[in-house]
Amino acid sequence: MDMDSFLKQGYRVKHGYHDLFPEHPKLPWCNLVWDRLIIPKNRFIVWLVFWKRLNTKERVSRYQSIDTTCVLCGNEDETTEDIVKLLHACHHSKRFNAARKSMVSTIIASLVYHIWKARNEVLWNQELWLTSTAVQKSKQLSLLRIKAFPPRKAKDEDIDWIMRT
To answer: Where does the record place the Reverse transcriptase zinc-binding domain (predicted)?
Structure first.
């Protein structure tokens, strides 16, 4: 608030609040990350992915000279861009209602977490997980979470739909 408007209009708390806390545009991935169904540790990893703060080999290579090849596939460089593309591609689907979208987001976030965990197991403990192991763990934990905290507006057929997949 500038001095002229202050002298003409007087001080209003509303103006002071807006000066202290300006509005920021809502991030397009905000609902995906902060969905209540998503397991908190999965949510944190997905949040790091969207802010490009996940310590991938590509990110670490800026500070150290290391091989950036993915430890899981051994073919391509390890980047967060591929994960972000996957999350955007899946989340913008318009064919799901809100309950199904929330359940699918939970499964995707869990997959991202378990793939990251599998990568770390190879890197730090030299234990290679099978892809099916990461998928099974992800599916199992996601379905338990969905059963424990079903979406607020979920119909019985929505819950049945996700349990069949």
So the answer is: 11-84
